[in-house]
Every structure is written in C-alpha cells, then in structure tokens.
Amino acid sequence: MRHLLGTDAMSREDAILILDTAAQMAATQEREVRKLPTLRGKTVVNLFFEDSTRTRISFEAAAKRLSADVINFAAKGSSLSKGESLKDTALTLQAMGADAVVVRHWASGAAHQLAHGGWLHGSVLNAGDGTHQHPTQALLDAFTMRRHLVGGGDRAAGGANGSGGATRSGGSGHGEAGDRGGEGPTGKGLDGLRVAIVGDVLHSRVAASNVPLLTTLGAKVTLVAPPTLLPVSLRERDGLDIHYTLDQALDAHDFDAIMMLRVQRERMTGGRSAFFPSPEEYSRLYGLDGERLRRLPDHAIVMHPGPMNRGLEISAEAADSPRSVIVEQVANGVAVRMAALYLLLAGEDQK
Amino acid sequence: MTGTILGAADINRALTRIAHEIVERNDGADRIVLLGILTRGVPLAERLAERIATVEPDWDAQERTGALDITMYRDDLFKNPTRTIGTTSVPDAGIDDAVVVLVDDVFHTGRTIRAALDALRDLGRPAAVQLAVLVDRGHRELPIRADYVGKNIPTSRSERVNVHLEELDGEDAVILRKGE
User: Which of A35, A37, A347 lies closest to B80 in CB terms?
Assistant: First the structure.
C-alpha cells in the first residue's frame, strides 16, 4: 500500500490486514506505556482545509503514539487562506520532508490529486474529501463491528460465527483485554452481518466509504434514507437493499449493526427544507429513538460517526444506551489510524 | 557441515537441560516468567514452561508464559518490506519484579534481543532479564550474550540456520543450509 485514498478499490485482503494490525495496535493502547518507537524520525503532516476535531486529533494521537513527528497545518490562519494552490502547498510540504500527508478537503478528489499530482514523495491518507470518501472512518466502523459481532466478540452475535470460546490465557495484561484482540475475530471479515446505514447518504462520505468496504468484507448493507438524500449511483448499485423509512427496514430485517448518519445541514445549501419538509418529520421517519432501538435484535450495536445531532437523527436514549458503541468508535479510530500509518510508512523507503 | 544438525531427540534434551538450568540459576522458579519471541520462540517457551512445571509443581506454566512480538521495536523497519504485527501476550500478573527469561530459536546478531529489551521496557520493570536460545550461531553485532544455550553452532555469515518445530512445521529439526 502506498496511499490510503478510498475503500472502492481496496481488496478484502488489504482490508483485513488493516483490521488485524489495528487489533494489535489497540492491544498496545491498553498498556501503561502507550507510546511505541515504531515511526521515530518520520514526519506526518495533518493538512486540514475543512474543520474537524475528532479526525484531526485522532490522526495526531495515532502518529504521536507511534513516535512520528506531527505538523498540523490548518487552512485558517495560514497561507492557504491567502489563496495558495493545493500544488504549492504540496510542494512546500515536500520541501519540509513530509513522509505522510493526512488531508481533509472540501473538494471531492483532493486527496487523489495530491497523491497522483507528482508533487509529493510521501504517502497520502484521505481524511475526508468533500462528499466522496473517508476511508479511515469506514475502517474504524468495520473494526468496531468485527470486535463486537464476529468470532465471539464482546456481545457476540447469535448467528455470526461459532463461539470464539477457548482463548489462551494471557491477553495483554489489563483485565478485559483478554478475549478482545485475541484469537477471536483475527483474519476474519464481516461475512453474513446485516448492517443498516440510515440518513443523509447523499452528503455522507462516511456512507460512501462504508458501502464498498462492508460489501468487500462480506456484510449485507441496507440503506435507509429519504429519496432526496439517496444518490442515484447507490440506488443503482448491485447488492444493496434500500428502504425509504426506518420502520420498513426494521420490519424487513434483523440488523446486527445500525449506523446513524449525521444530517449535514452545512452542505444543504438553499435551506434544509430543500431535502426534507421539516426536522420533525425527518426525526419521525428516520430518527433512532428508544422505541425503534428496542425493535433491534438484542445483540445489535448502535453506531454514529459523530458529531451527533441529538434529537434529530438519534435520540439521547439511543445515543446513551448500553448498545451504543459511539464512544468506542472514537477510541478504535486511533488504533485504525495507527495501523494505517504503520502499514504505509514502515517498510522500505520508496524513493 | 550442512544438513540437519539437531534432531527431535537433541532438541528435547537441550530444552530439558535449559529448563533445569533456569530453575537452578534462579533458586527455584518463583519469580520466573517466560516470554517467547515470535514466531518460534513461543512454542519453545511453552515447552520450557512444561518442563519447569514438572520440576516445580507449584509453578503454573499457563500463568507464567507469554509471547512477545518485537516488530514495532525493530531497527530495520525501513530496510525491509512491511512486516505483519503479531500478538504480544503478557501474563496477567505482569512482569514487574519478575525474572523474565526471553526465549528465541536462533541467536545471531543480537538485534532481535535488543528490540525485545526495548519492548520489555514498555511492558514493565522486571527484576532481571535472562536469555535462553536453542541455537547460538555467533556473529554478534551488539554486546549481548545468552544465559542458556541449547547448542553453539559455528556458522559462516552466508549460511542459514532454520529451526523447524512440531507445532508450526510438523517436525523438530535444526537445519544448516549453505548460503547463495
């Protein structure tokens, strides 16, 4: 792997390698000393053209836990706001010796351009480009599902796999680490799991990355969205199951995981009423509340990429329920990004 | 001399002797924790643990044996293709104040052991660290020595020493091969 730009072309083998590596990284994060010397001397640049809190600090934490040097480059208050082009910025980063560039940009395709423009020698990691892709988010979602639902995970799914039961004694020292990250889900995909992705699919790079990745890993994906928020490209994609209200979807399937998407009001130019009549109606048809939560199978997990609009796509009861893994998703994000940085930066220098 | 240098019986005897040496050197096994270095150090550590447990019945082999993956501590990460990271498992009681015996199959340049010492430092503070190896083939590049050696095998740098173990390879053998 040279760059991590999207999940469309990612092979099942590579995806599982990233998840397995992430599991080892997660195990190191339960130790007393969480810093590893692995990427000493490497420089990772966080290049953010769009506001982001969790993705940026997650990448920063991941790089620092691996002992890489981190340079944060935000559009606001830098030469970028003075109109510098992406190319000139890239050349500047190249001159500073960036081994990896983590880029978030409002334009779809920016990461691809940065990787293939011939401006940089280092690796490019896409941290979200417009409404296109956000691969590390999809990988951390897949990682979270695999941990909970595959191979006798924490709250193992009824039908998912045999019992991962007899794990060797050991674990990584700190109690609960025992059966996690152990033999259970290692090497496995998400075969046979049924996942619902609910809400603003149109503007969601999280959904755009999750659909191909989850499919590659063997999960069956159901999209639930208002017709106005469902892109034609996905409506025509094979193997996807589509519902126009959440109740219909809940009647039709037993979901193992349900992923609520943020309603991206900032991308709904022309007023939010352009896509659905009112927030109340959206909530009534697509919101996850306590009543709908109870209709999910007992082992099902509730996910959200954050930040949440509480009361719009997800109620406080659902967000704070014991079946919600939303906070764990954030912790897993660091492990997955450590894995991505390791796999891209370790290995022979590609000069 | 090339070919099979140690057979199953030789490996058995060497491990039995090392197990006794470990117990003797440390006045019993009370504080001993065995950590096998991935990949082939792990089954070797488990075999040593079994033998120690037969001499010292109070010593719980399962609770005192673990595995150490040193990939993320290597000094040649950027000189080789990307390596897959293995599982490190440390006994639940941790390694603080224990006598950790690192176990590996072939002792060569010493760089693996250096990495293992760095990895240990992140896991805790053992009272002492000792090293047990099945084969010492020489050519040290660092000032590191083994405390317990199954067999010293003089080699030239270009030769290769392959250790096969029942658990992973279906047979027990140490094989010396001519280099290119």
Answer: A347
DSSP letter assigned to residue A258: E
Q: How far apart are the first and last CA of chain B?
A: 15
The CATH number given to whatever domain includes residue A38 is 3.40.50.1370
Q: In chain B, whose CA is at the least distance from the CA of A171? A: B89
In tens digits, chain A (351 residues) has pLDDT values of 899 999 999 999 999 999 999 999 999 998 888 999 999 999 999 999 988 888 999 999 999 999 999 999 887 767 677 778 889 989 999 998 999 999 999 999 999 999 999 999 999 999 999 999 999 999 999 999 999 999 875 544 333 333 333 333 333 333 333 333 445 799 999 999 999 999 999 999 999 999 999 999 999 999 999 999 999 888 888 889 999 999 999 999 999 999 999 998 777 766 545 788 888 999 999 999 999 999 999 999 999 998 999 999 999 999 999 999 999 999 999 999 999 999 999 987 654
**ipTM, interface predicted TM-score of the complex:** 0.88
In a domain, A126, yes or no: yes
Question: Which residues in chain B have their CB less than 8 angstroms from residue A66's CB?
Answer: 72
Which residue segment(s) compose the domain that A118 sits in?
A: 12-134+331-345
Which of B63, B77, B123 has its CB closest to that of A31? B123
Q: Is B110 on the interface with A (CB under 8 A)?
A: no
Q: Which residue matches tokens 């208050």? A: A77
A185 and A306 together in one domain: yes
Q: Is B169 inside a domain boundary?
A: no
Q: Which amino acid is at A250?
A: L
Instruction: Give dist(CA B16, CA B164) in Å, integer.
Output: 18
A276, part of any domain: yes
Q: Domain total for chain B?
A: 1
